[in-house]
Amino acid sequence: MTTRRGFLRVTAGAMMAAAAGHGNEKPQAGGAPTGTVPKGRYDIPDGAQVATRDLGRTGERVSIIGLGGYHLGIPPEAEAIRIVRRALDHGLNFLDNCWDYNNGDSERRMGKALAEGYRKKAFLMTKLDGRTAQSAREQLDQSLERLRTDVIDLVQIHEIIRKEDPDVCFRKGGTIEALVAAKKAGKIRFIGFTGHKDPEIHALMLEVARANQFHFDTVQMPINVLDAHYRSFEREVIPVAQRDGVAVLGMKPLGAGLVVESGAAKPEDCLRYAMSVPGVSVTITGCDSEGVLEQALHLAIGFTPMPEEERKALLARTAPAAENGKWEKFKTTHEFDGTEQHKRWLTTSQI
With bands split at pLDDT 50, 70 and 90, how would you rate the model's confidence at 36? Predict the structure, then answer.
């Protein structure tokens, strides 16, 4: 079965061709243009700060764009640390990560970057795969150690992609039990969940939460120019989340890099669209080089929403590529499902 990392390698050549004239961006699972955007291409003024939004009802303010954790495992470690720190210096405070990214190296690198006073600048999020209370506790303890922190601002249940996942998480001895206990113990502040498969599964997770009198602080989902046409999280989940007072985190603004490969839209347009969707608190995008980070900062500093006419024209151009989810493989295949390829992660902390 194709793995996430293998998929990135296989499609690199095609993606670079598709992105010609836009920095020869390579594909990525997290969503931002990546690869060879040259450092210094964008003029980022010293002291310029990324705009912020409310994170639902949490009382927190977060940057409108977030730094994806997976891609921090791609460049040399020193560059990854510079990426995190430069992002924080410009007010990009929402940091994404996951217990399983790059066998834990993404968390370890982020932990090193958050030393020397940088932790206080960050709103730190990571994700856990465990579907049992025991596995969730073990994974959380490992994440705390790697991230070099006593408390993680937001922990999310990773990859709610199966119809049985909601009941599994909420059953006695399930993930929710461990996260609630961790919150009471002061190890985490907020709780959320993520997924990229089907908006019906997200809606079911929110329904099961209501039935259990539990309130999620956040929910993470794909938001991009193709999603708007097929199995749309934007149309089907955001209204439910807003009704329940759950903050929306957008991911895969480039459709895991495949929107650019399809030729449907340019990287900058993809990011601007995702950042403009009403109801989204933060758009999480991966940056595997300092040049790619500069591109994200350029778009997020002084950001203004995409005008409606431009939005309509962009959606009209991308409609053919969205047909049957052919370019949203994280919805229609298992190529991006880490927990499907490594089901042991659901019940053990070993990676």
Answer: low
